[in-house]
Amino acid sequence: MYSSTIRRSPPGGGMPARSSVGATGAAVAAAEEKDAELEVTPGGMVVQKRDPDAAPPAAVVPTIRLKVKHGSAYHEIYISSQATFGDLKKMVAERVGMHPLDQRIIYKDKERDSAAFLDTAGVKDRSKLVVEEDATAKAKRLLEIRKNHKMEKAAKAIAAIARDVDKLASKVSALETIVNKGGRVVEEDVIRLIELLMNELIKLDSVVADGDAKQQRRNQVNRVQAYVETLDRIKIKNSAPKGNAQPKQQQNREPKPQRRVQFQQQQQPVVVTTNWETFDSLLIPSTSTATITVAPPATTTRLDWELF
Fold first, then answer.
1. Left (φ > 0), alpha (ψ -120 to 50) or beta: where does 92 sit?
2. Considering the entire predicted model, what is its pTM?
3. Does domain 141-239 bear CATH number 1.20.58.120?
4. Euclidean distance between CA atoms 97 and 209, whole angstroms
């Protein structure tokens, strides 16, 4: 047997429209999703459905208006009720031009600390506060600024001196290397470096420093003194005679005692002996012998005569 399948074409003939079916499905899905996001309240209102896992909405922090008196003038300042008195001082500084650290805020006849919160102290909307200038705090702040300025100035001066010492240190190291290798350096260069280092010591002594700057100055002083001592050693080594010069002088001095001995030997007295011959004569003795002794300083001649 044979089976047949009959396909029905849409009205108007042709193939069925698949795009219209897809669009209808998307619209249905969107409607279902929208229905899932909405809910009906007991009063019959359709509202957005709430997520039970979501965090509760944060409470809105109210903004309060304060009336701040400075001198004879009043200033209205809007600020958060959970702000601190330090935050209020910053806003007051923008209005009156007074540094926050120089201010004293008084609320209900009591000075308030900068770290305290407004709501904790009982400050409410339209509360009245008084701002005064704290002369002691202002003087303390100015002294601190001056001290910091001096420390910065001292640190800059010490840093400049340290750079100059670094340049001189390289020259000292070069001279030390030459001398350690047995070489000679110009003594004027050594003296000049010592003078320059002593000038740096004078500069360091004139710097007024406290705290960390004082320790930095002490370190630089010790450093300069070490370089001066190194130059003194270089100067001593440079002026010392070389090792082979002394034996030559000793060799030249050794023959001198021999010359003295020879000279003394030449100075010894000389003895001269004279033998006389005899002749047969009446006036002259038959035989005679004479001995003469001669000394270099004074020559004395002695004659011994024999008579017959």
1. alpha
2. 0.49
3. yes
4. 33
